[in-house]
Amino acid sequence: MARRVEYLCNSCGYTYTSIDEIFWIDETGQVNIKPLVKSTSAESSIAPVKGFFAKYYCYGCQKFINKFIIYKKSPEMDEGEIIQMIEDSSDDSKIIQFDDEFQRCIECGSELASKADYSFALDIDDEFHIGEDDYDFSKGNKFKFAGIYHGYFCSNCKKQINKFVITENNANFTDSEIKAVLNEHTNDLTIFIRRDFDICPDCGEEVYYLDQNSTCPKCRKDSLTIVGHMMVD
User: Which of 105, 36, 102 is nearest to 74 (CA)?
Assistant: First the structure.
């Protein structure tokens, strides 16, 4: 089922409606974007490429940016080919991202399957935690940064690869500070990705998912409030 939410700015009357959406690329190469309901789930289940779709707003460019997150792809399809199909589907500005579980070996380039998936966090006492617990800032500011860990092993190179996906950065650490902390806790090949923000492909400013209390894109004087909410299927 898809969640449909209507927002209103009480100052200028601007309205905005969001709905949970998915996308898929069918066998003809057409990119489809539709609400996440039973019929589209069934239709997209046989597609060679499938993922989530969302609209973000860039206050710098004053326009919406389409974000595609690919979480399923056929082994026969090249990543560059998929990106080109999505880019060619419209003239809209886009952020195209593969699911963080997708990973190639750093040394030989082979596609790898995730062998372990955990949460991790650095707490306010500089203690590093990793495990099955869900480390979430919504429980309070007790973590400096947190995210999701994926572990891989390349049988060709006999190498362990540790992938840390940063989803929250409460302490506003720089990339070098995050890297230093992670390197203290692993001796294997380590990579990390920032997912605590997204950047506009046109102006380089941070983009935002519009939600309750987001600044109104039109007047920028007031916040959006929810005036309607329903589930559709």
Answer: 102
Enter the tokens of residue 196: 């605590």
Query: Which burial class, exposed, middle or buried, applies to 173 when counting CB atoms under 10 A from its CB (0-12, 13-18, 19+)?
Result: middle
Task: Give the list of residues 6+ apart from residue 172 with CB closer than 8 angstroms, or none.
Answer: none
Q: Is 88 helix (H, G, I), strand (E, B) or coil?
A: helix
Question: pLDDT by residue (tens digit) across 63-113?
Answer: 999 999 999 888 888 889 999 999 999 999 999 999 877 888 888 888 888
> Residue 227: helix, strand or coil by DSSP?
strand
Residues 6+ away with beta carbon under 8 Å from 225? 7, 8, 9, 10, 212, 213
Q: For residues 194 and 146, what is the distance between their CA atoms, to the nearest angstrom?
A: 11
Q: Are 195 and 166 in contact (CB under 8 A)?
A: yes
Q: What is the C-alpha to C-alpha distance for residues 111 and 77, in angstroms, rounded to an integer?
A: 13
Strands 49-58 and 63-73: antiparallel
The SS3 call for residue 41 is: helix
> Of 65, 95, 96, 69, nearest to 217 (Cα)?
65
SS3 141: coil
Give the pTM: 0.76
102-152 pLDDT, tens digit per residue, is: 888 888 888 888 888 899 999 999 999 988 776 655 555 588 999 899 999
